[in-house]
């Protein structure tokens, strides 16, 4: 009888350990950053009109209350899948992020503010260069950003492809899709929907 009880106990412990390990394998997104800040990940596309709603209605509050106060780390993953010029916008955004990271959110905001019809090709180099010129950064940085996003196989090009691939691998079917602490925001169009996880 003791042998049976012992075997059942050992089996129960093994099942608990296996269950814990399998749960760890299912977790695809980190709940926090390396420095233990809350991590906000937004999948979007500069041409997406619904992403513009998030930028207009939610981001000003999130930026002021959480990003500017250094309480969270925010990452915009540009899905770049709505049109061919989406990927050009993604490259430009990545170049700004790389060379002048403090100016990135301003750049993102300006792009969304001037968003045009998603069926129209408007994320052109001419348009993007004008937006880069508006940034409050040194002329040398502006020139570097322009060169970076136009250069094939640059870090910005590679990152744009990685972001597109990541969107597909994580089965993101539509944008905007927002995760906070690894949890999906069910209503990304309201501040309340975001704050539920902050």
UniProtKB/TrEMBL annotation:
Keywords: Disulfide bond, Isomerase, Oxidoreductase, Redox-active center, Signal. The keyword Transmembrane does not apply. This is Protein-disulfide isomerase. Belongs to the thioredoxin family. DsbA subfamily. GO terms for molecular function: isomerase activity; oxidoreductase activity. Residues 39-197 form the Thioredoxin-like fold domain. PROSITE patterns: PROKAR_LIPOPROTEIN (PS51257). Pfam families: Thioredoxin_4 (PF13462). PANTHER family: DISULFIDE BOND FORMATION PROTEIN D, GLUTATHIONE S-TRANSFERASE KAPPA. It comes from the Bacteria.
